Amino acid sequence: MSGKPRLTYLNGRGRMEPVRWLLAAAGVEFEEIFLETREQYEKLIKDGVLMFQQVPLVEIDGMKMVQTRAILSYIAGKHNLYGKDLKERALIDMYVEGITDLMQMILVFPFSPPEAKEKNIDSIKERATNRYFPVFEKVLKQHGQDFLVGNKFSWADVQLIEAILAVEEKIPAVLSGFPQLQAFKKRMSNMPTIKKFLQPGSPRKPPPDECYVETVLKVFKK
Amino acid sequence: MSGKPKLHYFNGRGRMESIRWLLAAAGVEFEECFLETKDDLTKLQKDGSLMFQQVPMVEIDGMKMVQSRAIANYIATKYNLYGKDLKERALIDMYVEAIIDLNELLIIHIFQPADKKEQHLATIVDKATNRYFPVYEKVLKDHGQGFLVGNQFSRADVQLLETLLMAEECKPDILAKFPLLQSFKARISNIPTIKKFLQPGSQRKPPLQEKDVPKVMKIFH
C-alpha cells in the first residue's frame, strides 16, 4: 500500500475533476482506479465501500470518503488551503459554492440533447459573464492581491482557475471583459504545481466526449 | 441593530430551513426578512447585497453571507457543532452532504407537475429507505451512541432529524423499518433548543402548500 490517496471514478472529469485539481495543486500524488463497466460498479456496491452507493470515492488517511464536497473540504483543511480562520473560510466557502454552481452547468452539458446544446452554451456564457466572473473580477480589483482570500493561495483559487479554463473551452473569448481574471489565470497557471498539472501526461482529464457520455450511461444507468 | 443574525428569504422552508434549524439548535435567536414579491428580490439584488444575486442571504457577524452550505458551515463551526477535528468534520460532511441530496428531492417535490408527482414520491421513498436511512441506522447501531459523530451533538444530528421529519410528512410510516432512527428522532427532538423549535409559534416553517407554489415561482422566475 502506497499511502497515496486513491481515487475511484470514471476515466473522465465529471465530479472527480475538482478533487484531482485540488490534490495536484497541493502537490499530492495520487492513484486512480477507473470504472469502465457496470459490473465493476456493482461490485463496489456489493463490497460495501460506497457509503451511499455513489462515486466519487477517495481512499485517504484510512477513510473511504464519498461526497465530493466532503472530500474537497478535507483535502483543503489538511493541506492549508482553507484560510487562516473562520471568516476566511466563510469567504472561501461562498466563492467555492458560487463557482460550483457554474461548474454544475458545465457538468451536465454533455448530457443535454443536441437541440438544447446551443441554448445551454448561451446560458453558461450568460451566467459566467453576468453573475459569477464579475464577482471575482471585483474581489481581485478591490484588494489588488494575487489570491482571492487572505493574500494566500487557497481552495478558492484552484476552483476558480479550473472553472475559467472549463468555460473557455466552450466560450474561448469569455474573459475578454475581465482583465483581472486574465491576469489571475496567467498567475495561477504558472504556479509550479498547477503548471505541472496543466502539462500533457498529468492526471488532468480531457473534456468529456461522446465516448465518456456513453460510459457514464452504461455504468450508472438504472 | 440587534446583533442577531438576519435571514433573507421567502416565508417558507426551501433552502433556508436547514439554517433556521441549525441556529435554533445552537440556541441562537434570529430575525427574518421575508421576500413577498419579485420586487423584494430585485431590490436586494440592486443593493448589491446578494453576492451571486441569490437568496438565501444571512447577515451575520458583519458579513452578508450567501450560499446555504457556506452559511451552514459558518454557523456550525462558530457554535461547535462541527466535530472536534478534521476527521470528525469529514464524517459530518459526508453524512450532511447525503442528507442534503435527500433534502433536495423533498424540496422539489411540491414543484413537480401533477402527472409526475406520484413517480417522484416513489423515488423519494426508494432513495430514503434503500440508500440513505440504512446508513444512519447502521452508524447508530455500530457505535451505540446517542449522536451520529464523536459522541457529541453536531450539525449532522440536526440535519438528520430535520430530514426524518420531512420524510415522515411525505410518508408517515417511512421509519417503520428503522428502530434506531425512531429512537434517534425521539431523543434529538427532546433536546431543549430543538424541543422549543418544534413547538407551535417557533420560526420553523410549515411545508409549502400547492396553493402557495405560484407565489413562490413569481418571486424567483
TrEMBL record, chain A:
Recorded GO MF terms: glutathione transferase activity
This enzyme's EC code(s): 2.5.1.18
Keyword annotations: Transferase
Keyword Transferase: yes
Gene3D superfamilies: 1.20.1050.10, Glutaredoxin
Keyword Plastid listed: no
Class of enzymatic activity (EC top level): transferase
PANTHER family (UniProt xref): GLUTATHIONE S-TRANSFERASE, GLUTATHIONE TRANSFERASE
Protein name: glutathione transferase
Gene assigned in the entry: Gsta3_1
TrEMBL record, chain B:
Tagged with keyword Phosphoprotein: no
EC number: 2.5.1.18
One Pfam family it belongs to: GST_C_3
Gene Ontology terms describing biological process: glutathione metabolic process; xenobiotic metabolic process
Keyword vocabulary terms for this entry: Transferase
Domain (GST N-terminal) ranges: 3-83
Protein name, per record: glutathione transferase
Record organism: Alca torda (Razorbill)
